[in-house]
Structure formats: structure tokens, C-alpha cells
UniProtKB/TrEMBL annotation:
GO biological process: prolyl-tRNA aminoacylation
Organism: uncultured bacterium
Family classification: Belongs to the class-II aminoacyl-tRNA synthetase family. ProS type 3 subfamily.
Xref: PANTHER family: BIFUNCTIONAL GLUTAMATE_PROLINE--TRNA LIGASE (PTHR43382:SF2), PROLYL-TRNA SYNTHETASE (PTHR43382)
Subunit structure: Homodimer.
EC number: 6.1.1.15
Reactions this protein catalyses: tRNA(Pro) + L-proline + ATP = L-prolyl-tRNA(Pro) + AMP + diphosphate
Record domain Aminoacyl-transfer RNA synthetases class-II family profile: where: 49-286
Name of the molecule in the record: Proline--tRNA ligase
UniProt entry tagged with the keyword Cytoplasm: yes
Keyword Aminoacyl-tRNA synthetase: yes
Length: 505
């Protein structure tokens, strides 16, 4: 067992990965267990991570014309029963309200596991003519799915997500919008904000969403070699619309059915951040996701507090610009520190504490950069900027602090993304037999395997066997052009396809 200066025990990442994950999440105060089975309490820091992602994505969604809505949490069971695959897919996971108004309900109410059926009802009211298309909607909500084996953030009965649902006049328009969403929202935010690299591809027939013609998934590798389905997109096309009688009057004055797509990204992404970027001791957060970009660590003596505060103000203004109005420290209980009255992304730890306590708390915080102020540095107009990821220390003039902070932040963001990509590149193994697949899985790697896409019976048998023997699943049919190791895997039959296999949460 590892032990920090704060006496918080962190299990060995190599020896007990599952416990290490829980220890890091608890040490950073991201969650608390709840009395509700399978559910957790999302504490302020995890909510901040989710809200940061939410704000960035909302900004990009609005540029594409997507509007936010909120649909009811309770969905009539009769909606689910309109589509037999729908019931079969969700039946084991549904939480159902059976009683209300002191009596048993005739039409039971499911607590939202997803919202396709409810959106269909909404679309029936909104869609009349081709002139109403496209309809581009999104909602940020909680969902409920009973889970037997849970783990904070990675798999909980209740979780939070965004789900957008769109209708289009033609398949070509739907596909084009899907590409816009992929590149301008998902890739932009997950890669640029969260420093995630993944393998994207199409789900197999058995793994796709029950109602979808096609399901696409985005699968990064966690630091233990497991896959995590971080987000999905479903092309439901017109068949689903026919089932729920969502139609419009077309350009030829005939009844037509729109093309339907749905997408989702959940708080599982927080679990990925914890498991993939963090080191043995503490959580590491990408700078663009961090609540605070830098923490100023002044060293106080009773007789110099006013002098130090004035010096901190100079550092502050060199980074964020001149502070207008009254400059009054406000207590920030959560970090046991102080921030300045104007809300920004820098924090100053003004506690009367020893330096090692402050630097240890900074290490625990996961924040990217520290700015240390010593008495001798004040006399020379200097400060020391420290990178959390490399622990590189650079002494600079106060006027140069902003440039050095920016340098460390950009280097850190790029380095985390490089590590995420490198992890995938080095841990995908070409396999020609089940035995080779087994070895790759046991070694904590992804396997790339050849499939005869026309032989559904044999493919189903393969999927059943790897699930039973290896506790692994087919993750996706990877898109070309992502990783050289996948592109270079030669198929014995050019009509066959490549399938990615891994263990997954």
C-alpha cells in the first residue's frame, strides 16, 4: 500500500487496479456512496467536471442549431411495448413505478433508461411538413438502469448524460449531420478537452442498439487495458419512425417518414479521466477540464501578510488582467483556501500553513500548475511556476508568469493526449486464432481479429465463446485511417472485416 503525506492510503495501481481506482476517486472527494442501491452522490468536484464538459458541448451544439429540451423522467410502459426489441433490450434494467395516487397504475411508468420513445411522441407533435425539418434536439438528464455490479462513474444504476435526437428529411442529410456532430462536437471536445484518443467504429449486429440499423461507438483504452464505451451514436433511419408513426408531408405531397439519429455521452467519461490520466498517487486532470488552471502558494509570516497579498495581486493581474473594484479575499471552504472576489480559474491558498502542507494539497488537488511565492523571490520580483505532471520548476519574473503558466498548460494537455494515443498504439495485437485473442486479452491488450461478415452464425458463436471463455466482447468494426496497427492488419479474404475485441466495463 502507498501512503501520502496526508495519510490517505492509495492501493498499488499495478497490484490492485480496482481498489486504486476507488482510492483515487475517494481521495479527490469526487463521490460518496448513497443508501440507494447502485447509486452514488456526485460531489462538487465531479459535478464541476461534468458541467465543464456540458458548457463546452452546449456551445458547439448551438453553432449547429441544436436546441436543448427536457422530457419527462417517467415513460409509460405502453410506449416500450410498441416495439418488441425495445422491451427485450431494457426489461432486466427497467425501474418501474407501479403505484400512484394510492392505487396500482393501469399503465405502469418506467423511469427513463433512454428517451427514444418519448422523443417519438414529442416529434409527432412537432413534425407536420418537410419544412419543419431538420429537428435537432438535445437534453442533459439523469437516467436509471438497474445494474448488478456497479463501480462509481464507470457503471452506476443512475447516471447523467446528454442525449440528442435528430430528424432529417433524407439519409444523406442525416449522415452529413452525423459527421458534423462527430468532428465538431465529439472529437473536438473529447480529444481537445479531455485528451482522449479512441478507436471509433460500428457495433456488430449483436452489440448494436436494439432499434438501430447501425450503432457507432467510441472506445478508448483505460490504463489497465480494458475498453470503455464512452459514447455511442445510433442511426435508426425510417423503420423506427414507421413503428411509432412519426411522419410528415413531403415535397410531393405524400406521407413520408424522417430519418432518425440519436447520440449519447455520459458521466462514464469522468471514470475514464480517473482511470486513464491519473498516476499512482493522485488524480490528474487535463488543464482544459480543470476547475482551476493554477494555484498560487504564498508563504506567509505574521508580519508580512499584507505585503504578500499585494504581491499575489500583481501575479494575479499579470495572468488574468487588472482586477476592477474592491479586491477582497473570499473564503473558499472546499479547498480550504481563498479565491479573489472576481470569479476566475486561479486559486490562492492563503492558509496559515506550512509549505509542505500546501504543496501536498496541490498535489492531491489534480490542478495543473502551482505558483510558489517565497520571501526572497518577492524581494527580487520573482515567483516559481511548477508543473503538476512533470514537476518541472521554472523561476520567472512576475510579468512572465502568465506565459510560463500557458506553456505548462499547453504542454500538459498535449502530453496527456499523447499518452492516451500511445497506450492504444502499443496495446493492439493482431490475432489469427482464438488462442492469440486469449493471450492478448490476458495481457491487458486489445485484439484485432478477422471476421467473415456474411457468416452470422459463426460470428455469433465467436462472440458467445469470447464472452464465456475470456469475459471479453467485440467492441467495434474499426473505421480505417485511425491507427497504423489496425490498417496494417491484412485480411486473408478481402471481403472479410476487422473486429476489435477487448474486456470492457
Amino acid at each position: 500500500m502507498e501512503q501520502s503525506n496526508l495519510k490517505i492510503k492509495i492501493a498499488s495501481k499495478e497490484e490492485d487496479y480496482s481498489q486504486w481506482y476507488l482510492d483515487v476517486a475517494k481521495a479527490w472527494d469526487l463521490f460518496e456512496y448513497s443508501p440507494t442501491p447502485g447509486c452514488i452522490i456526485f460531489k462538487p468536484k465531479s459535478v464541476t467536471l461534468w458541467e465543464t464538459m456540458k458548457a463546452a458541448m452546449n456551445k458547439d451544439l448551438s453553432k449547429l442549431g441544436v436546441q436543448n429540451v427536457y422530457l419527462p423522467l417517467l415513460i409509460p410502459m405502453s410506449f416500450f411495448e410498441k416495439e418488441k426489441d425495445h422491451v427485450a433490450w431494457f426489461a432486466p434494467e427497467l425501474a418501474v413505478v407501479t403505484h400512484g395516487w394510492w392505487k396500482e397504475l393501469e399503465d405502469k411508468l418506467a423511469i427513463r433508461p433512454t428517451s427514444e420513445t418519448m422523443f417519438c411522441e414529442y416529434f409527432r407533435w412537432e413534425l407536420q411538413s418537410y419544412r419543419d425539418l431538420p429537428i435537432l434536439t438535445n437534453q442533459w438528464v439523469n437516467v436509471m438502469r438497474w445494474e448488478k455490479r456497479t463501480r462509481p462513474f464507470l457503471r452506476t444504476a443512475e447516471f447523467y448524460w446528454q442525449e440528442w435526437h435528430t430528424l432529417h428529411e433524407t439519409k444523406d442529410e442525416a449522415k452529413q449531420f452525423a459527421l458534423d456532430i462527430l468532428f465538431n462536437v465529439y472529437i473536438k471536445n473529447l480529444q481537445e478537452q479531455m485528451a482522449i484518443f479512441w478507436v471509433a467504429g460500428q457495433k456488430s449486429e449483436s452489440e448494436k442498439f436494439a432499434w438501430a440499423d447501425m450503432t457507432f461507438t467510441y472506445e478508448p483504452m483505460m490504463s489497465n487495458g480494458w475498453a470503455l464505451q464512452i459514447c455511442t451514436s445510433h442511426l435508426l433511419w425510417q423503420g423506427f419512425m414507421e413503428q411509432f408513426d412519426v411522419s410528415f408531408l413531403g415535397r410531393e405531397w405524400k406521407k413520408e417518414f424522417p430519418c432518425y439519429t440519436s447520440w449519447g455521452l455520459s458521466t462514464r467519461s469522468i471514470g475514464w479521466l480517473i482511470s486513464s490520466h491519473s498516476d499512482q498517487k493522485w488524480l490528474i486532470i487535463p488543464p482544459k477540464m480543470s476547475e482551476y488552471k493554477a494555484v498560487i502558494l504564498p508563504i506567509y509570516w505574521k508580519e508580512n501578510q499584507a505585503e504578500v497579498d499585494a504581491y499575489i495581486k500583481n501575479i494575479w493581474e499579470s495572468i488574468i488582467g487588472k482586477i476592477e473594484g474592491d479586491w477582497v479575499p473570499v473564503k473558499w471552504e472546499y479547498f480550504k483556501a481563498f479565491v479573489w472576489d472576481n470569479w476566475d480559474k486561479i486559486m490562492s491558498d492563503r492558509r496559515d500553513a506550512r509549505f509542505w502542507e500546501k504543496i501536498t494539497d496541490f498535489e492531491l488537488s489534480g490542478y495543473p500548475v502551482a505558483i510558489v511565492v517565497w520571501q526572497k523571490e518577492m524581494e527580487a520580483g520573482l515567483c516559481t511556476v511548477i508543473s503538476r505532471i512533470t514537476w518541472e520548476k521554472v523561476q520567472v519574473n512576475v510579468s512572465d508568469a502568465s506565459a510560463q503558466v500557458d506553456k505548462f498548460l499547453s504542454e500538459w494537455q498535449a502530453e496527456l493526449f499523447r499518452r492516451s494515443r500511445e497506450r492504444l498504439e502499443k496495446n493492439i495485437v493482431p490475432c489469427r486464432s482464438l488462442e492469440e485473442v486469449w493471450k492478448a486479452i490476458e495481457d491487458g491488450k486489445f485484439a484485432i481479429y478477422e471476421w467473415d461478415k456474411s457468416d452470422n452464425n459463426n460470428n455469433s458463436k465467436f462472440e458467445s465463446e469470447i464472452k464465456e471463455r475470456f469475459k471479453a466482447t467485440t467492441r467495434c468494426i474499426p473505421n480505417p485511417g485511425q491507427l497504423k496497427i489496425i490498417d496494417d492488419f491484412e485480411l486473408k479474404d478481402k471481403d472479410n472485416i476487422k473486429i476489435l475485441v477487448a474486456r470492457a466495463f
